[in-house]
Design brief:
The complex is a heterotrimer of chains A (494), B (130) and C (249). By secondary structure, chain A is an all-alpha fold. Chain A contains 19 helices and 2 strands. Classes of the chains: A mainly alpha (494), B mainly alpha (130), C mainly alpha (249).
């Protein structure tokens, strides 16, 4: 055991503690805050990258906080899938943070600037903690940090629609958190333990099946709201479209994925996949809702006039994809769901940041206004198109790989209707994405709203956008290595 | 009949449902927040009941108390965290209510969300800055 | 119609939850999973392992200290969130609202509050420092200080109470809980253990009990101060907003 065993905990706590120290810097030199906020995220990313290849042979890295072995103390458990998601979280948060200063400087008034960066760092740190933890109650604690910071970040502009959207989000999010707390209580009452690994052993020999079934249902409802699973999605279109664009990217690209991942972990590591008596019926219901989500999200996205609302509805559709992958209970489906978390994160973050660039430069939000936009903003439009192609799932991009595995997984599980739904979802995505691309590149700019050489977004905003777009291409072309280890990790979970 | 024996749990569950109903059905947002707090309190009550032991004593070792008779301390420790979380969420929710009331002049959800239709959520950003 | 649907949903949920309550382990039975699995070690070993006679404090600060670190981060995020939504109060502007939040109160009330608030604060100090041997702890003490500030502010108004705990005192102390936890955690790593190890393996075994006790008290003080300052700041922030509404109206 080298020093690297401490890396996960440092990855989590460094952003949190820097968030607490940031107000002091804000008091002394407010101008330095945006740059200083990059430091902890870079440290976390670096530590995460150093961890690659250091996962021990048993398949996970276990870290006992305070030196108390589980189930007596809290455990941090990083397996291949967890490390993968940790790196995704670090990377996208870092890029969204790089994007932030110019955009936020325009949308958020002076006194709240420091608060924005504090909340952003708290959110990133909490997401890392949420992914890495091996204890169900600890999961709840980090979920609450995430929830609180995301409510506040949606409302940070102080604009009346934003406050309203944040309050709607809170009114759905807070009861769902309490449901998760109740579910944890039920789980604890039937097993007497809170550690995930210990729980799965105790559940196998527990006689209280009814309690466990309802506990699982409550977990699904609770995390379903956080992940915006179809009938519980009402908060998402408002919150994701009204929040400042970097925050939309974080919420849409990471927060919903991370919540889905929590449910994945609970399903596979706690309630265990084979346990039909407990999770059978509920996971069937989740598949149906997920299929409905794919179709509903796609159709609603086609009907939207506002670019950010369209992207938000597309997120609802893609959450359905992830859940259909999880509920297929095959290693291909699971690997596809995990890979979809990566490429959906990259693509959605890219789309929202592109929308942010357009709002920053022109203030346009409606899709109709984008006619001929490439003449003024070629880089933004190209990045947008690449990400949109990944959302559709056309070959050279990462979206193709994940959708392929998702459909393949559903085929091997002999779930023909769901595989068909996934295909239809891709067609719907093609409709709403290609429409925007068509407007951007092939429609004449009749009103003369876009001037050639009028200037694209500033470099600090274009760089993260282009990196994200390049990322979707890179992970589409060089997917082999990651997919292989994900398949291995998925086989380990099943 | 186990339900009569577990009446603490039953009461907590009923309170939970009453709270959730208040959150869903009430139109006044302050009442919704009260419902939220009822839900939270019911879960705290549930946890503390989980730790109950017939004839148990407080889990404090001072004076050489017998560990075998102590109630379960874990739910109490967890619920301290739960209470802090509840306070934090309530504080944020009330700040949002303050802001909403200042901007819309109403606490009624139906009037707050009246002009919101399916298609065009929100205007251009910054349009309605206070 | 909408309410009827909600009612039906709630009745279904209530039936489900009551069914669970009827199938849960019997309450208070010493053979329950909750009473037999993890806690025997806590109840038997807390005194020797965490050097706290109050087992709950041992769990909160030591066995599950990481949860508590998350918890103090939650309360700090609540402050950051409230400040992000409402903005921090500015010193100069408070003067305009002197005594606006004061409810009309008689001399008796004012005198009693003046007399009681110091005693309440004294009690909270006791609660914080005695957390490991009696009921109490950092959060409880911090909450008591916050409560005393609510009482004081209700009677004397924001101007008076924000002079008692001015912003330049609150501002540096708001994050003290998280920072203390982080420092103790990192010291545990430097001392040869894991994050948040209180009994450093590199220290002689004879010194460890004293070390654990002092670190526990340090963390309690950090939590108490941080909690109290955060609650007070949130309170002041909200009162200021209320007053601005009153002025606008």
């Amino acid at each position: 055991m080298g020093a690297y065993r401490h890396f996960p905990i440092l990855m989590i706590t460094v952003p949190l503690v820097c968030a607490v120290l940031l107000p002091f810097l804000g008091y002394l030199r407010e101008r330095w805050v945006p740059r200083a906020a990059l430091v902890p995220l870079s440290v976390s990313t670096l530590l995460g990258l150093l961890l690659v290849g250091k996962i021990p042979a048993q398949g996970y890295l276990s870290y006992h906080l305070g030196g108390w072995e589980p189930p007596f103390g809290i455990e941090i458990r990083v397996d291949y899938i967890g490390l993968f998601l940790l790196l995704v979280v670090c990377g996208i948060s870092l890029l969204a943070m790089v994007f932030s200063p110019r955009y936020i400087g325009k949308e958020v008034s002076g006194g709240r600037l420091t608060a924005y960066y504090v909340l952003f760092l708290l959110m990133s740190g909490a997401m890392l903690g949420f992914v890495a933890t091996g204890d169900v109650f600890n999961l709840f604690v980090f979920m609450e940090i995430l929830a609180l910071t995301s409510y506040a970040l949606v409302a940070i502009t102080g604009n009346r629609n934003a406050v309203r959207a944040a309050f709607k989000y809170l009114l759905m999010g807070a009861p769902s958190s309490i449901m998760v707390l109740l579910a944890i209580g039920l789980l604890y009452s039937a097993t007497g333990s809170l550690n995930m690994a210990d729980l799965s052993a105790r559940i196998a020999e527990s006689g209280y099946t009814e309690v466990l079934v309802v506990s699982f249902i409550l977990f699904v409802i609770g995390f379903g709201v956080k992940a915006a699973l179809f009938p519980l999605h009402m908060w998402l279109p408002d919150a994701h479209s009204i929040a400042p664009s970097p925050i939309s990217a974080m919420l849409s690209g990471l927060l919903v994925e991370v919540s889905a991942f929590a449910l994945l972990r609970l399903t596979f590591s706690v309630f265990t996949a084979g346990n039909d008596a407990i999770i059978g019926g509920t996971s069937e219901a989740v598949s149906v809702f997920a299929a409905a989500a794919v179709l509903y999200g796609g159709i609603m996205a086609i009907m939207q006039k506002d670019l950010k609302v369209m992207i938000a509805y597309s997120t609802i559709s893609h959450i359905g994809y992830i859940f259909l992958g999880i509920t297929s209970f095959t290693k291909e489906g699971l690997a596809g769901a995990m890979y979809h978390m990566l490429d959906h994160g990259l693509a959605k973050a890219c789309l929202f940041l592109c929308a942010g660039c357009i709002i920053y430069v022109k203030g346009y939000r409606r899709i109709e206004d984008l006619k001929g936009a490439w003449r003024q903003m070629p880089w933004t439009c190209f990045a947008f198109s690449v990400a949109a192609i990944s959302v559709i799932g056309i070959p050279p991009t990462a979206g193709f790989i994940s959708k392929f595995y998702l459909i393949y997984g559903n085929f091997t599980a002999e779930r023909w209707p769901y595989a068909l739904v996934l295909l239809v979802g891709a067609i719907l995505a093609a409709v709403y994405c290609l429409r925007v691309i068509y407007y951007m590149f092939f429609q004449p700019d009749k009103r003369g709203a876009w001037e050639e050489g009028g200037g694209d977004a500033p470099a600090s905003m274009l760089a993260p956008v282009c990196l994200l777009a390049a990322g979707t291409l890179f992970f589409g072309v060089f997917s082999g290595l990651i997919i292989d280890s994900l398949l291995k990790a998925a086989a380990f979970l099943l | 009949m186990r339900l009569l024996h577990n009446y603490h749990y039953a009461a907590a569950m009923l309170l939970f449902c009453i709270g959730l109903y208040t959150v869903i059905a009430r139109r006044n947002i302050i009442k919704k927040l009260i419902g939220l707090n009822i839900m939270e309190t019911s879960v705290f009550f549930f946890y503390i009941s989980l730790g109950y032991l017939d004839g148990g004593i407080a889990p404090i070792r001072t004076g050489g108390a017998d560990p075998a008779r102590m109630v379960n301390p874990i739910p109490q420790a967890l619920i301290l965290t739960g209470i802090v979380v509840a306070v934090s969420v309530t504080a944020l929710a009330l700040s949002l209510v303050i802001l909403l009331y200042r901007q819309y002049g109403t606490l009624d959800v139906d009037r707050l969300y009246r002009d919101e239709d399916g298609g065009t959520h929100g205007g251009p950003s910054g349009e309605d800055a206070p | 119609m909408k309410n009827l649907l909600a009612l039906l949903f709630i009745i279904a949920l209530a039936a489900l939850l009551l069914y669970v309550a009827a199938n849960m382990p019997p309450m208070g039975d010493p053979d329950n999973p909750t009473a037999t699995h993890v806690i025997p070690r806590y109840l038997e070993g807390a005194e020797k392992e965490t050097h706290t006679e109050n087992v709950i404090t041992g769990i909160i600060l030591n066995y599950r200290g990481y949860d508590t670190m998350g918890e103090v981060t939650v309360i700090f995020s609540a402050l950051a969130a409230v400040l992000a939504v409402l903005g921090r109060e500015r010193r100069g502007r408070i003067h305009a609202y002197v005594d606006r939040s004061t409810v009309p109160s008689s001399v008796i009330v004012r005198t009693m509050v003046r007399f009681l608030v110091p005693l309440i604060v004294l009690f909270s100090v006791y609660t914080i420092l005695h957390g490991e041997i009696s009921p109490g702890g950092g959060f409880q003490g911090g909450a008591i200080i916050g409560g005393s500030m609510i009482v004081f502010t209700t009677i004397f108004g924001l101007y008076e109470s924000s002079r008692r705990i001015p912003q330049k005192v609150r501002f540096p102390l708001e994050g003290s809980a998280v920072v203390t936890f982080f420092l103790v955690g990192v010291l545990g790593m430097v001392g040869g253990g894991n994050f948040l190890t209180y009994a450093w393996p590199r220290v002689a075994a004879g010194l460890q009990p004293a070390l654990v006790t002092w670190l526990t008290v340090l963390v309690e003080i950090g939590i108490g101060l941080g909690g109290a300052m955060v609650l007070t700041s949130i309170l002041f922030c909200m009162i200021r907003e209320e007053e601005e509404i009153a002025v606008v109206a």
